[in-house]
Amino acid sequence: MTLRPDGFVHASGPVRVVFGRGALASVSEEVERLGMRRALVLTTPRQSGEGEDLLKGLGPLAVGVFSRATMHTPVEVTEEAVSILKELDADGIVALGGGSTTGLGKAIAARTGVPQVVVATTYAGSEVTPVLGETQDGVKRTRSGPEILPETVIYDPSLTDGLPVPASVSSGLNAMAHALEGLYARDRSPIFRLFAVEGLRAFRDSLPVLQQEPHNVSARDRALYAAWLCGTVLGGVGMSLHHKLCHTLGGALDLPHAETHAIVLPHTMAYLATEASEELTSAVELFGNPLGGALHDFASSLQAPLRLADLGVQESDLDGVADLALRSPYWSPKPLERDGIRRLLHDAWAGNRPTN
Ligand code: NAD
Hints:
Elements: E1 16-19, H1 27-33, E2 39-42, H2 48-58, E3 62-66, H3 75-87, E4 92-97, H4 99-112, E5 116-120, E6 131-136, E7 139-144, E8 152-155, H5 165-184, H6 190-212, H7 217-236, H8 241-253, H9 257-272, H10 281-287, H11 291-301, H12 318-327, H13 338-350
Parallel strand pairs: 1-8, 2-3, 2-4, 4-5, 5-8
Antiparallel strand pairs: 6-7
The protein binds nicotinamide-adenine-dinucleotide (NAD).
Residues 44, 46-47, 71-72, 97-101, 103, 121-122, 124-126, 129, 131-133, 159-160, 162-163, 167, 171, 234, 257-258 line the site of nicotinamide-adenine-dinucleotide (NAD).
């Protein structure tokens, strides 16, 4: 199909969203709605206490908690969880947590077909995308499909009230990257643009408040609302240069996901600023001109990480990352040239303020 200028195709996944303070109370109703009778609750080790509470709250509708969800969805952990699901004769998943726990739920659903309810507690946005990244033998592979998309998402902002400020900021910047890439994606649509701009505005307004007042209830509500919008954009459009570089850095150097996105974002926007200037106009209106510099200042005001060097990346790693990223690039509005990408990576490594 050859559409554009400026025709489009718009398709959005059929996720049911329950949003609001106290929404967690609807979890049994949502589990039953999907026909589950024996749900398995998933969490990370850090959130196992909340998982046990959820198990109790679900009463006869749940049969156990698996609390070993891990960043980057290692296949060994998924296989262990699938065998526990089978042992317990569980018929569905309730994943409570951020992108790591959601990733485990998606990986189980992809293998078994069981339905998923996600109770999202960070701003990562994975809960509304049909995308799954899994790690095996040190390599992270991404795939997408309708069987991966969770059926129901519960957003209860009270569960994010205790999300530490650094995690809130990095995870919020990670979600902003979804929306920004949605603005210039090859398969962008006017509806996703509305979602992206509204999500970016809500993060622009809420993250600075959270940085100062982590328990500010209306800022917490607004940030989770923004996360839903930005995640939905990522669920509907193809990723581009920014996600490619972050996946390459994360996979090759085992870097923390949200922080890597937070650091790289101003630099990818600066790299694309000229070629995607029309598509990025609304982002410039929200954050300032030039966009890369303005996003750097925004991140800096939030005390977000700014330097890949601070994540342990060595300058000598950058050539290899540039080569890897160029080996199988995602579509980009600007052709990728080796020198420009290497410079971008150096700027992100050193924490330079972009001039574009
Ligand atoms: P995370 O899920 O790894 O959470 C980080 C830590 O914070 C964990 O220990 C978790 O238990 C804890 N935590 C979560 N919510 C909390 C809360 N409210 N209060 C206190 N602690 C809390 O981090 P993340 O950034 O949400 O997710 C990162 C993962 O998600 C990566 O593996 C990434 O690849 C994946 N991801 C996938 C997609 C997708 O569409 N497939 C999108 C974004 C992220």
